[in-house]
UniProtKB/TrEMBL annotation:
CDD domains per UniProt: F-box_AtFBL13-like
SUPFAM superfamilies: F-box domain (SSF81383), L domain-like (SSF52058)
Pfam families cross-referenced by the UniProt entry: F-box (PF00646), LRR_At5g56370 (PF24758)
Residue intervals of the F-box/LRR-repeat protein 15/At3g58940/PEG3-like LRR domain: 111-237
PANTHER family referenced in this protein's UniProt entry, alphabetically: OS06G0556300 PROTEIN (PTHR34223:SF51), OS11G0201299 PROTEIN (PTHR34223)
Name this protein carries in UniProt: F-box domain-containing protein
Domain (F-box): residue spans on this chain: 22-56
Amino acid sequence: MKGKKVKNKKITMVEETQIDRLSDLPDGLILHILSLMDTKYAVQTCVLSKRWKYLWIHISSVHFHSKSFSRLEDFRSFMYHVLQRCKMSNLLAFCHHSHNYLNEEDKYTLDRVTDLTVSRRLQELILTFAHLDRNWHTLKKLDLAYSIFRCQSLRVVRLENLFDFGNFPDSLELASLETLTLTRVTLSSKNHCNDLFSKCGKLQNLVLHKVTIRISSVFNISAPELVNLTICSPEFETTNGTGKHPSEKKVVVRATKLTSFILSVDHKLYYFSIYNSPLLYYVEVKASGVLSHYFNNGRYVLHLIDVLRELGNAKSLAISGNILEFLSKNYSVLEHQSSPFRNIESFKVLGQENKSKMMEWSKVLQFLLQDSLIADTMFFEIQKGKK
């Protein structure tokens, strides 16, 4: 009797494990799950049963990853198939990740994006391509339709390695945009008083990573709701035959709600101004390139201090070790300068490996923090470390 009970119990357990609990879920929840997946695997669910055969065509987000395919031709063919079959009117997010650089064969992708933005339902747009280190300027320019830059429904936009596509507008008319990330994209303006972001009334997060700025003089970042700003090593290009040196270019930030600012500088410093940002709390400053070539360059040191001074109202400061090292090597230039920061309440050096060098940088730290609330505590800890 006991043997039969054990056997029946095992059969019951096997039956329970074979129950298709996923298919018991309502279509709306299943579609939500499929919309979060790589679309290649979402489509493969069509073989599960008759119910699943056409379910995937109603997904609200597509995620195309070329690395999921052994050949780019197969990737493009699959994407073409999906976009021909799925209900385009349902799509709220279009995410495209290619490990190849942007070229003429991607025109179909850009055209489909245009169709989606014209429909005024798309909320998230991600287009990323591989970085082409050299000769990207020889590529044929591909235009993005103006409907992309005027789509009233877009909330998140990320463009990466689109390089110099031919028709970036003077102004983005994206009324619902909340987060914008641009990486290695060329921003140009025919308008001398360019104001690219002023019509993005809901923009809260802005990342400009190694963008090329093709303007005549001043690059304006004006966004009333901007909270988080990241600028990493922008590249300025001379326009209109002005012949101006990059250090004569200027970035002007006007954002009254700005609270966090991450700035990555390199050897190509530029003038920088930040106006009316009383809520600025966190500032992170790091060097993306090697600054050792500029040791004993007093002009560069003063330029860097001017940039830091524009961030002087911040209360929390994080700074990279290579900047502290650079300033330490040029400390003689700092002796007659005032500290750029006034209200620092918390401070850290980026990089765990740099903590052992705090004593070497004590003079620079004293210069940076001498007018701050934590100055006495910081210098006590440094002196304590020396002992």
